[in-house]
Amino acid sequence: AARQVPVDRNSVFASEAVEFVEQTVGDHMRIGGGGLVENWCSPLDTLRWTFRIERPGRFEVRLHTVAAKYKDWIGGHRVTLQSGETTLASDVRPDEEVHSPRTHHFAERVTRIGTITLANPGTHTMQLGAIYINPDDPAGLCVGELLLVPSATTS
């Protein structure tokens, strides 16, 4: 079932609500014990979220990523996000540092991917893909959540 997303506050797409679209064999992406998407090591794999909004608008898309336990956050991946006819591409970089109880063990960062417009109310899909996964990152691309933040800009 599609998740109802309110437009008046940040909308969080937790890893638990993701659909895996795997194209590889061998070690597979999974939801780990901490609720994170783990073991994403192939750019052939993607994640997809299906959700509903009541009111259209512009949203900043933020990707929350996590390092391997007791390791430094590395980043250096490159991702794409597709929603409708909009495709964004971004390097995974540390735009924001995250402070939470979990960060005592796992370094976490937020990357601002870009802004999308959801022009109509109803059901939408976002798909997150990897153009490049940094082989120096022992966790691969580890995703905590994808956030939609209502944008104040109208351009």
What does this structure look like?
The protein is mainly β and 155 residues long. 0% of the residues lie in helices and 49% in strands. It is built from no helices and 13 strands. The strands form 3 sheets. Strands 1, 3, 6, 8, 9 and 12 form a 6-stranded mixed β-sheet that branches. A 5-stranded antiparallel β-sheet has the order 2-13-7-11-10, with no helix packed on it. The protein has a two-stranded antiparallel sheet with strand order 4-5. It is globular.
SSE topology:
Blueprint: E1 3-5, E2 11-14, E3 19-21, E4 30-31, E5 37-38, E6 46-53, E7 57-66, E8 78-83, E9 86-91, E10 96-97, E11 108-118, E12 122-132, E13 143-150
Parallel strand pairs: 1-6
Antiparallel strand pairs: 2-13, 3-6, 4-5, 6-12, 7-11, 7-13, 8-9, 8-12, 10-11
Low-confidence stretches: 5-9
Mean pLDDT: 83
Q: Which value, in Å, is the CA radius of gyration?
A: 15 Å
List the total number of helices.
0
Binned strand content: over 45%
List keywords for this structure.
single chain; mainly beta; six-stranded mixed β-sheet; five-stranded antiparallel β-sheet
Quick gist of this model?
The protein is mainly β. It has no helices and 13 strands. The N and C termini lie far apart (32 Å).
